[in-house]
Nuclease EXOG, mitochondrial
Amino acid sequence: MNGEDCGRATRVIGEDNVAVPSHLYKVILARRSPESTEPLALGAFVVPNTAIGFQSQLTEFQVSLQDLEKMSGLVFFPHLDRTSNIRNICSVDTCKLLGFREFTLYLSTRKIDGARSVARLEKVLETLKSSGVEPDDYFLSRYGKKLEELKAKEQADIQLEKLS
């Protein structure tokens, strides 16, 4: 995105000069469930394409849908009746960004699924602890299940090797 508020220069990287946007946007139109009769909730956000740290609040990056459409040159939800009762998503949800601990736990828990060996799984736990974050019950539960799964797979692989 390169609007007046977002800066003019576009940085490029690599030998192919791939453009790196100065800002990123996200538009959310939500309802608790398809059957819900409550009003839709809408939020539009423009975030700088740099680290924002853990002190910022998501509401600091909220913009109106109309402003985002002007900045981006796009029209979002063209069939949406904008005169209907649409709520600000940050009044329906907290729009609270995760703190360092929660964010680190979230990423580490996701890495559990990607571990393909016991050693790799143990590295996930080691990295989490070295960041100063103690694993929570959810992380430990997922970790334990994945550890059992990987140990069983390694044992099966050993048995297959013996048969070969």
Remarks:
- The first strand starts at residue 11 and ends at 13.
- The helical segments are 65-72, 89-92, 100-114, 118-130, 137-163.
